[in-house]
Amino acid sequence: xxxxxxxxxxxxxxxxxxxxxxxxxxxxxxxxxxxxxEILLHGEMSVNDIADKLKIGQSAVSxxxxxxxxxxxxxxxxxxRTVFYAxxxxxxxxxxxxxxxxxxxKKRALP
Amino acid sequence: xxxxxxxxxxxxxxxxxxxxxxxxxxxxxxxxxxxxxEILLHGEMSVNDIADKLKIGQSAVSxxxxxxxxxxxxxxxxxxRTVFYAxxxxxxxxxxxxxxxxxxxKKRALP
DNA sequence: TGAATATATGAACCATTGTTCATATATTGG
DNA sequence: CCAATATATGAACAATGGTTCATATATTCA
Lengths: 111, 111
Hints:
Two copies of one chain form a homodimer. Chain A has 111 residues and is α+β, with helices and mostly antiparallel strands. Chain A has a single domain (15-107), classed as Winged helix-like DNA-binding domain superfamily/Winged helix DNA-binding domain (Arc Repressor Mutant, subunit A), CATH 1.10.10. In chain A, 55% of the residues lie in helices and 13% in strands. Chain A is built from five helices and three strands. The first copy, chain A, starts with 14 loop residues before the first helix and ends with a helix. The first copy, chain A, binds a DNA duplex (30 and 30 nucleotides) through residues 30, 32, 46-48, 56-66, 78, 80-83.
């Protein structure tokens, strides 16, 4: 058998892919980053505005944005001296929402 | 307005929930843990068998399992001296698969 | 009960990571 | 060009996290 695309299957998942997968989830596993992601789900925003909104340093935000940018989760758009960041990956919202649903369902004790 | 359950909405998400969400994604953000989770997606398995299969120490596996058990992601079942672990949360498969699909799509350059 | 086997746990250790501080780079308006 | 503003970046630091080692606990079988 070769490939049963989609759905849950019992095929072997390579170590490489599992590693990438854990690396991918890492982006969502930090409070600052997930707050940034949540903000960007509503639309693009400048670095300073993000920092102000989260009440954390500009540098911290910039460092995290670099991480996300390097991995193509966010995309910068320069307008004059301000840089606006937006989500660069359509799947991010889905991952975020899937996790969020889990948390909320658990909280409300809904199976 | 009170609550628009489900789907994507633009309601405020509390800091607490965002924190919990990042904590939840943390379980998937380590190679060892995600490999354990992947194994358990196929069904329950004993601690030693997991360690053997992953070729890592029994202690390391046990430590990670405790973490997952404490957070109710896995559930132990004792049979004699061996303890079998199984996934204890129906949403785990969904999260895993959602992330996996993202990785695979990205790899195959399918938008 | 005592040896053997399976799992759990605590402490120590090293690596990773997120923040801060200082500073560099970039852009605009005067 | 110069001052002001916005963002980026490197180094240092503290905290967190995952593994290992040694040992404890639990269970079965002879």
